[in-house]
Amino acid sequence: ARFAINFGANDGEWAVRNIATSTNSSLFSGTQTITWVLNNSGVPLSYTGPDTVVQSLGNDLADIWIGTVKVFSGVAVQTPDQVIADLKFAFTVGTGTIAIDNISITAIPEPGTYAAIFGLIVLGFAASRRRRR
Predict the structure, then answer these.
(1) Do the Cβ atoms of 58 and 64 come closer than 8 Å?
(2) pTM for this one?
(3) Cβ contacts of residue 24 below 8 Å, gap of 6+?
(4) CA–CA distance from 12 to each of 32, 50, 68, 93, 97 (Å)?
(5) pLDDT, tens digit, for every residue of 108-132?
(6) How far lies 129's CA from each of 117, 121, 125, 126, 133, in Å?
(7) 3 — alpha (psi -120 to 50), left (phi > 0) or beta?
(8) Cβ-contact 66, 28 below 8 angstroms
(9) Which of the chain's ends, N or C, has fewer CB atoms near its CB within 10 Å?
(10) H/E element holding 129?
């Protein structure tokens, strides 16, 4: 999955570009939080968005948020058969300055692991109950 940052005409202005559809978001300025949600789990995903509302995202799709505004919803990934393995940042045309701070990557367990996690919790609970008796 990919997206781009385009610089605006005025100093400090920028927009997110949906590479798949060649469209830009509205312009933003200054420091903003970008949230990029990717779903490569094989099933639909529910997550709490930056606006604190539960969002739904289909498999092999992405949502892009600036602050609490969803600027792109359900963006198709370019190569859905690949796994998410690398994060790449590149200037491909022109020059500019982008400051990146406080990167947080959160992997949500795939649905198939929920049964295993629940099983371990039940097993741990049963083991603790046996010790108390």
Answers:
(1) no
(2) 0.74
(3) 6, 15, 16, 17, 18
(4) 11, 23, 20, 18, 10
(5) 665 554 444 444 555 444 444 444 4
(6) 19, 12, 6, 5, 7
(7) beta
(8) yes
(9) C
(10) helix 111-132
